[in-house]
Amino acid sequence: MDWLIARLPPAWRERTREYLVLTRMDRPIGALLLLWPTWWALWFAAGDFPPPGLLVIFTLGVFVMRSAGCVINDYADHGWLDARVERTRGRPMAAGRVSRREALTLFGALLAVAFLLVLLTNALTIKLAFIGALLALVYPFTKRVTHLAQVVLGAAFGWSIPMAFAAVTDSLPPLCWLLFVGNILFSVIYDTQYAMVDRDEDIAVGAKSTAILFGDADRPILAVLMVTFIATMLLAGMRAELTWPYFLGVAAAAGLLGWQQWLIRTRERAACFAAFRNNHWVGFSLWVGLVLALALR
C-alpha cells in the first residue's frame, strides 16, 4: 500500500491512504478468505483449470466486493460500535477521518466496478449478482438484530460460489449448493473466532454475534461446525469423483482446524485472532488439493 501511495501526487496521498485503509487493502486476510471458496467453485465447476477470462473476472471481483463490504460495514458500525471498541476505534470512519458521504460514494463506485465485471459473464450470473449485492448491503446491519450475523456473512461471502458455477456452466447443480453450505460453515467458524476477540466489548455495546450466543460452549460448538465442514468438503470431493490429492488437502485442512482448537483453548484475544488468520491456510490447502486432483485425472 505504501508503495502505491508513494507514486501518487502528494496532494492525493493522505485521502488515498484513508480510502485504502477503509477498504482494508492493508489487511488482505479477509479477501483471501473470500478468494479461496471462489476458486474452489471455479475449479469444481470447470472440472479443470477454469477459463482464464472468468478466473480474472472473479479474482478481481473478490477484491472489489470485499472492499465494498468493508466500506458498508464501517458505515453501519462506525458510530454505535467501532468508536466504542478498542481494536476498531482507529478506523477511518470511527475516527472521523472519512465522512458518511465519502463512504457511500466509495461504496457506490466499488459496486459499479463489480457490476461492470459481472456484465462480462452471462445472464444467469448477472441475475445472481443482484442477490449478492443485497447480501453485502444487509449483512453489516444484522449484528444489531440477530446473533446469527455470521451465517448471513457466510451467505454473502459464499454467494460467489453459485455465481461461479453459473458463469462456468450456466447452471446451479447440487454440487454448487453443497459447496455453498460448506462455505457458510467455514465462515461461521472463522468469524466466530474473530468475534471472540471483541466479545466482552461487543456485549457492553449491545452488538450480537455467534461468539456471544455460544458463550462458554464456543469451543465444543466450533468443533462440531469444523467436523461438519470437513464432512461437507469430503462429500463434495466424492460427488466430483476426485482422487487422493484432494482428500490429502482435506486432511491438511482438518489438521489446521484442530490446531485452531488448541490455539483458542484459553480464549485469549491474540490466540483467537491467530486462529482466525489461520483459516487462510485451510482454504489454501483445500484449493491446492483440488487443483492437484483435477490435474492428475
Describe this structure in words.
The chain contains 14 helices and no strands. 76% of the residues lie in helices and 0% in strands. It is globular, with a radius of gyration of 19 Å. The termini are far apart.
Short recap of the structure:
It is built from 14 helices and no strands.
Shape: globular
- Could you state the oligomeric state of the chains shown? single chain
Q: Measured on Cα atoms, how large is the radius of gyration?
A: 19 Å
Number of helices: 14
Distance from N terminus to C terminus (CA atoms, Å) equals 40 Å
Secondary-structure element pattern, one letter each: HHHHHHHHHHHHHH
**How much helix is in the residues?**
over 70%
Taking all residues together, what is the mean pLDDT? Answer: 95
The tally of strands reads: 0
Tell me what portion of residues adopts beta-strand conformation.
under 5%
Main beta-sheet strand count, sense and barrel state: none
Residue runs with pLDDT of under 50 for 5 or more positions: none
Q: Given the helix and strand composition, which structural class is it?
A: mainly alpha
